[in-house]
Each structure stands twice: as structure tokens, then as C-alpha cells.
């Protein structure tokens, strides 16, 4: 069916492989990522490439330079060379791979892309231009209007990327899937931090359902939820039991206070919640998920209310833990989970 002129057409989501689903988008602006520079962004500014929303196409929409495109798009190159952009990651991390998304770029996508990385304490463009760059994704062919899910073999941690397109064209979105590293390494022993925050290295290991909204990873995002789609929401349960997710802390820690935020969830918030926790060494995500059924209770079942922040301090003294299992009864939506505490002595 043809779209109605002026109506946005959104790109379908990527069918993410396991390595991406279990990772964090290190290039998320919500984690502090920034597009710092582009050799050329005549048709569409490079900042759009990091927009967390799906790319859209608006029929009939033009600006002073031509067709409005949702992404980064350079002009047609008429000299030797290629275009490139500098991106600061939201947090330093080990990169598992990329989604180079050319959604809605059909006759104007780049035929190839490569990505280099470096570690820098400065965001100064001139300093970054002169930095020593390491290629972590060799030149790779791209196609039109597609998600390109590309694995990265590097095991080092990086802070900045140089995205090269050959020779020119447009990228709708860039997602950089990986794991934040070392965010809590130098935290003072007496400091209270959110041990499971995404920016501190926390991640969602597994969850039994995420039919609505985002995956359980959304629980760990900075700030309060933006709307009812910005959280973890399960389907309506029609059988006995309850929904759950398993989360890994950024570093072993002692949890002192729990916050459960049901922002925007009103007719669909969970009736109750509880937390289990354990110190886990070794194993895989799958084995850890199986073990989580038998972990000790950190927070017994407590009632929840709609659209509210709930704070719990009456926690079992379990000592240092590495993982938690967050249970909701019987189902519903939660916007954010905060686990405030101290980093365990090393």
C-alpha cells in the first residue's frame, strides 16, 4: 500500500543476533554519545545518525539542500577520497559489533564502510584527527535500505570511533553493540553508586518476556522513562507464575537500597515485585539464568503502585553480589530499576 504523502514511514527494527541482544548500544546519546565531526554532511547532519528512534522517511519533505533524510548524508563526491565522521562513545567499552543501518537510503547509500577506533581523553576534533587509529572493522560492502549487522573481532576497550564511508552517501543509524568497561574501577570505597546502571557496566542477562516496549535492558537506562514505551513490559499473563529478568551488576557490590520506578505504567504496572541475588563466578548466561531460580531473597515481595518511584531499604544482608533476579507478579511494566550500594572491596 502506498503511503499517504507527508506521512512518516519508519524503518522496521533489526533482527538482532544474540551477541547484539545481550549488549549495550555504546553509541546511544542517552549514555552521552556524540557525533563530533563529519568531513561532509551537506544533505543530512551527522548527529541524526545516533538518534535512538528508528529511522523514518517522510514523503514529500524537502529542505534548502534537497530531500530531507533521517540520518547522516554527504554530498556526491567529485574529487578523490572518501567521507568520514568522528563519534564519541557514551562510555568506554569493548565492542562486539555494529548495526550500520541504511534504511530509506536506496540510490544514495555508501557502497562500503570501515570503522576505526582509538582511546582519547579529549573530544577535540583536531586532536582526534591526529590520533593513532586502529581498524576494528575492515572495509565491508553495504546495500540499500538494510540493517547490516557486522561483528567486531577487537577485544580492546575504546572511547572514540572514525566511521569511513566509501566514497560518499548516507547512513540512517549507527548502533555500536558492546559492554561498558571499568566505569566503577576508581570509585571511592564509601561512595554510593547505582551498581546496575547501564553506564556503570550493568547489563540484562536474560528475561522471560518483553512483548511490549523495550527489552529488560531498558530498566538500566539513565534518567526516568520518557513514556510507556521506554521500559520493560511483558504481555498479560494467562497462566500461573510470574515474569522475571536476570541482571548483572557492573561490578560486585553490596546493595543497600532498591528503587523500582513504574513511571507511565498505570493500568499495566505489576501488582508486586521481589529481588533475589547471588555472587556468581563462572558459567554462561544460560547457566546463570537456571541458577537464578534458587538464589537467596534480597527483597521479599512488596506491593507496587502505578506511575511511582518505590524505594526499599529493608534488604537481606547478603553481602557482595554480582547478579540479581528481578521478579514481577504476575506481569506488567516497569520503567527503571536502581540498585544503590557500595562497590565490594577487591
TrEMBL record:
Catalytic activity: allantoate + H2O = (S)-ureidoglycolate + urea
A GO biological-process term: purine nucleobase metabolic process
EC number per UniProt: 3.5.3.4
InterPro entries, A to Z: Allantoicase, Allantoicase_dom, Galactose-bd-like_sf
Gene Ontology MF, one: allantoicase activity
PANTHER family tied to this protein: ALLANTOICASE (PTHR12045), INACTIVE ALLANTOICASE-RELATED (PTHR12045:SF3)
Gene3D superfamilies on file: Galactose-binding domain-like
Protein name per its UniProtKB record: Probable allantoicase
HAMAP family in UniProt: Allantoicase
This protein's record includes keyword Hydrolase: yes
Listed pathway(s): Nitrogen metabolism; (S)-allantoin degradation; (S)-ureidoglycolate from allantoate (aminidohydrolase route): step 1/1
Amino acid at each position: 500500500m502506498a503511503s499517504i504523502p507527508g506521512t512518516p514511514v519508519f524503518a522496521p527494527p533489526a533482527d538482532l543476533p544474540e551477541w547484539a541482544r545481550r549488549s549495550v548500544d555504546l553509541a546511544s546519546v542517552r549514555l552521552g554519545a556524540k557525533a563530533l565531526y563529519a568531513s561532509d554532511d551537506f544533505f543530512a547532519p551527522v548527529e541524526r545518525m545516533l538518534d535512538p528512534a528508528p529511522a523514518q522517511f517522510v514523503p514529500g519533505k524537502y529542505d534548502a539542500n534537497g530531500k530531507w533524510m533521517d540520518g547522516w548524508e554527504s554530498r556526491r563526491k567529485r574529487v578523490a577520497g572518501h567521507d568520514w565522521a568522528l563519534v564519541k562513545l557514551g562510555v568506554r567499552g569493548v565492542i562486539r559489533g555494529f548495526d550500520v543501518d541504511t534504511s530509506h537510503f536506496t540510490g544514495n547509500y555508501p557502497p562500503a564502510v570501515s570503522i576505526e577506533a582509538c582511546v582519547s581523553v579529549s573530544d577535540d576534533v583536531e586532536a582526534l584527527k591526529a590520533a593513532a587509529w586502529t581498524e576494528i572493522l575492515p572495509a565491508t560492502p553495504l546495500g540499500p535500505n538494510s540493517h547490516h549487522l557486522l561483528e567486531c573481532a577487537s577485544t580492546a576497550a575504546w572511547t572514540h570511533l572514525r566511521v569511513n564511508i566509501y566514497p560518499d552517501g548516507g547512513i540512517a543509524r549507527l548502533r555500536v553493540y558492546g559492554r561498558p568497561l571499568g566505569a566503577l574501577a576508581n570509585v571511592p570505597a564509601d561512595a554510593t553508586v547505582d551498581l546496575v546502571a547501564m553506564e556503570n557496566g550493568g547489563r540484562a542477562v536474560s528475561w522471560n518476556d518483553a512483548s511490549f516496549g523495550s527489552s529488560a535492558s531498558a530498566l538500566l537506562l539513565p534518567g526516568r522513562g520518557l513514556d510507556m514505551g521506554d521500559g520493560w513490559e511483558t504481555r498479560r499473563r494467562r497462566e500461573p507464575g510470574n515474569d522475571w529478568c536476570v541482571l548483572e551488576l557492573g561490578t560486585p557490590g553490596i546493595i543497600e537500597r532498591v528503587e523500582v520506578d513504574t513511571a507511565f505504567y498505570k493500568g499495566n504496572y505489576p501488582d508486586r515485585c521481589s529481588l533475589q541475588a547471588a555472587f556468581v563466578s563462572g558459567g554462561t548466561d544460560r547457566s546463570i539464568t537456571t541458577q537464578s531460580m534458587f538464589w537467596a531473597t534480597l527483597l521479599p515481595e512488596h506491593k507496587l503502585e502505578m506511575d511511582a518511584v518505590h524505594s526499599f531499604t529493608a534488604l537481606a544482608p547478603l553481602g557482595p553480589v554480582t547478579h540479581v533476579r528481578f521478579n514481577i507478579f504476575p506481569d506488567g511494566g516497569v520503567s527503571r530499576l536502581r540498585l544503590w550500594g557500595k562497590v565490594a572491596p577487591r
